C-alpha cells in the first residue's frame, strides 16, 4: 500500500501546479492530524517531504541555468567593453579629446592624478578601463571599468584618477546631454516610465549594459567615416539616451527633464545659481524662481546636489577662483573679489578649509604636480 501510495503522490506532484500541490499537502496534513489516522498521517508527511525535495530540485536547476546565462552574458560584456576600449585608445593619445561628433569627447589618462576641481554639466561618462573617484558635496562616487556616471545638473565636483598605468590607462568617453533631446524621447507614447522618484539625484553611477557599450562603439566608429556623422550621430546618441533612460539610473534623468516636476524646477534654480554665483544669494528669491517654498527648495536642492544652496554657491565660487588663479595667474585677493567675496580673509579661511591649504600654496603645489606629470 505504501508503495502504491508513494507512486500516486509522485504522480500528483509532477502533474499538479506547485501552488496547488502546496495547498493539497497542507490540507491533507491537517485532516490526517485531526482524524488521528496513522496511515493517513504518514502518507501526508511523505507528501510534504516529496514536495519539499521537488521544490529544492527545481530551485537548483534554475540556479544552474541562471549561472550559465550569467557567465555567457558577462563574457559578452567583457568583449564589448574591450572593443570599446580599443576604439578609444586608437583615437585618443592622452588627456581629453573633443571629437568631430557633436557632444562626444574621449578621455585617456596614463597615471593617477591629484584631486582636480571642475564643474560638471549634464553628461554621461562611460568608463571602460581604470578607476576614478568623483566627490560631489558629501557624496563620493567610485567609477571603474564596468560603470557609467550620470550627471543631470550643473555640479561642482572634485575628481581624481586613482587607478591608471601606461600599460592600462584610464579610458572613457563623455557624451553631453541636451535636455530637449531627452524630452523628445520621453514624449513618445511608447516610452512609459514611472512617476518622479522621491530620491532623485543630480549624480548617479550605474553598471554599463552591453547594449550601451555597443551603441558607444558605433558612435566612435563614425570618426572613421566623417561623411556619416551628420546623419547618424544624432540617431546613435538618441539610442544611447534611450538605453540610459531604461536603466535603473534613468529615473534621475527623467525627473530632471520632465517639465513641471519639482526636480525640474529645482534644476532651473541650480542653473540660475550656476550662472550667477558671484551675486549675493537670497534663498527666498531663489525659491520664488523655482515656484516653491523655502523649506521645499532646501529639501529638493539637497536631494539633488547633496548640499544646501549656500554650500553650493560657496563651493562653486571656490572652484572658479582656484581655476582662475591656476590658469590665468591672478592673485588670491583678485580671485576672491571676482567670484563674489567681499572679504579676502574670509576667502582665505574658506579656501583653506575646503582645499586643505591656503590659496597660493595650493596653486603652487598643483603647478608642481602638473609639471612633474608632464615631465614623466
CATH class of the largest domain: Mainly Beta
* SS element count, helices: 14
**How many β-strands, per DSSP?**
10
Strand content: 15-25%
Structural class of the secondary elements? alpha+beta
**SSE ordering:** HHHEEEEEEEEEHEHHHHHHHHHH
Structural descriptors:
376 residues; alpha+beta; Jelly Rolls; Arc Repressor Mutant, subunit A; 6-stranded antiparallel sheet; 4-stranded antiparallel sheet; 10 strands
Describe this structure as you would to a colleague.
The protein has 14 helices and ten strands. α2 packs antiparallel against α3 (about 40-90), α5 (about 210-220) runs antiparallel to α6 (about 230-245) and α11 packs across α12. β5 and β6 form a beta hairpin. About 60% of the residues lie in helices and about 15% in strands. The chain has three domains: about 1-65, no CATH class; about 90-255, Jelly Rolls, CATH 2.60.120.810; about 260-375, Arc Repressor Mutant, subunit A. The strands form two sheets. It has a six-stranded antiparallel beta sheet with strand order 1-2-9-4-7-10, covered by helices on one side. A four-stranded antiparallel beta sheet has the order 3-8-5-6. It is an alpha+beta fold and about 375 residues long.
Amino acid at each position: 500500500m505504501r508503495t502504491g501510495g508513494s507512486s500516486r503522490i509522485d504522480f500528483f506532484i509532477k502533474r499538479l501546479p506547485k501552488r496547488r500541490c502546496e495547498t493539497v499537502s497542507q490540507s491533507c496534513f491537517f485532516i490526517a492530524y485531526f482524524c488521528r489516522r496513522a496511515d493517513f498521517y504518514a502518507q501526508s508527511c511523505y507528501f510534504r517531504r516529496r514536495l519539499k525535495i521537488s521544490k529544492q530540485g527545481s530551485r537548483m536547476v534554475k540556479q544552474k541555468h541562471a549561472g550559465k546565462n550569467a557567465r555567457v552574458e558577462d563574457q559578452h560584456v567583457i568583449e564589448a567593453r574591450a572593443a570599446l576600449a580599443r576604439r578609444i585608445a586608437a583615437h585618443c593619445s592622452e588627456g581629453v579629446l573633443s571629437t568631430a561628433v557633436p557632444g562626444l569627447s574621449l578621455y585617456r589618462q596614463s597615471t593617477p592624478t591629484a584631486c582636480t576641481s571642475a564643474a560638471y554639466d549634464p553628461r554621461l561618462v562611460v568608463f571602460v578601463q581604470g578607476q576614478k573617484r568623483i566627490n560631489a558635496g558629501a557624496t563620493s562616487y567610485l567609477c571603474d571599468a564596468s560603470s557609467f556616471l550620470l550627471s543631470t545638473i550643473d555640479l561642482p565636483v572634485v575628481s581624481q584618477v586613482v587607478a591608471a598605468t601606461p600599460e592600462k590607462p584610464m579610458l572613457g568617453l563623455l557624451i553631453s546631454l541636451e535636455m530637449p533631446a531627452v524630452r523628445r524621447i520621453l514624449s513618445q507614447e511608447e516610452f512609459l516610465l514611472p512617476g518622479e522618484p522621491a530620491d532623485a539625484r543630480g549624480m548617479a553611477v550605474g553598471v554599463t549594459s552591453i547594449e550601451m557599450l555597443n551603441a558607444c562603439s558605433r558612435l566612435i566608429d563614425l570618426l572613421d567615416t566623417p561623411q556619416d556623422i551628420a546623419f547618424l550621430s544624432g540617431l546613435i546618441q538618441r539610442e544611447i539616451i534611450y538605453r540610459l533612460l531604461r536603466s535603473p539610473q534613468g529615473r534621475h534623468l527623467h525627473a530632471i527633464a520632465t517639465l513641471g516636476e519639482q526636480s525640474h524646477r529645482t534644476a532651473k534654480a541650480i542653473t540660475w545659481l550656476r550662472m550667477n554665483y558671484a551675486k549675493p544669494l537670497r534663498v527666498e528669491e531663489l525659491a520664488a524662481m523655482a515656484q516653491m517654498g523655502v523649506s521645499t527648495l532646501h529639501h529638493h536642492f539637497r536631494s539633488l546636489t547633496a548640499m544646501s544652496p549656500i554650500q553650493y554657491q560657496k563651493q562653486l565660487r571656490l572652484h572658479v577662483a582656484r581655476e582662475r588663479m591656476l590658469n590665468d595667474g591672478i592673485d588670491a585677493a583678485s580671485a576672491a573679489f571676482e567670484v563674489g567675496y567681499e572679504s579676502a580673509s574670509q576667502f582665505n579661511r574658506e579656501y583653506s578649509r575646503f582645499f586643505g591649504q591656503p590659496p597660493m600654496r595650493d596653486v603652487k603645489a598643483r603647478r608642481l604636480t602638473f609639471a612633474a606629470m608632464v615631465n614623466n
